[in-house]
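WARN retry 2 of 3 for item q-0093 after timeout on previous attempt; input resubmitted unchanged.
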Amino acid sequence: MLKVIIILFGFFNNKENISYEFINSQINESIINFKKEYKEYNYFEDEHIDEISKKLNKYLNSTLEDKGEFIARYALDKNVDPYLVTAVMLQETGCYWTCSKLVRSCNNVGGNKGKPSCGSGSYRKFDSIEEGIKFAIDKLARYYNNGLTTTKQIGPKYAEDPKWPERVNNYINKLKRG
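OK item q-0093 returned
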């Protein structure tokens, strides 16, 4: 904000007959844009990212402990529901209690298959837990971009278990309650 004012002052200081109203309108426009960008980056459904992070961290254990803010920020950056992505991770990993071996050994938080493989299995290995989290969120973002935004829509594409949507929704409800 101060940077904008300094730039405006420097620009307008070299001009004659610049009205106070014009300068004030430019400053107000900058403030409005800043508030809009701040809200887009820090809020989801009128809930601040700090509150979301606290709720997520309450249920993230083991390898995912204290990753709530990282998950929430990356999910919001990708325009995906942070509660949904965390619920999918909890369903796929068991990190509500103790994370599965797939998470602890391979940093795979989404049950994702592919190369490079983890050991001799078909599941994918990631170099870091953050890389695994980003991959899982990116995968869900692709569903979102194709109009699949609910567990009932995503479930048949994501998992073979017909109860997957119900199970993920149970986690979403827990997470939202905090």
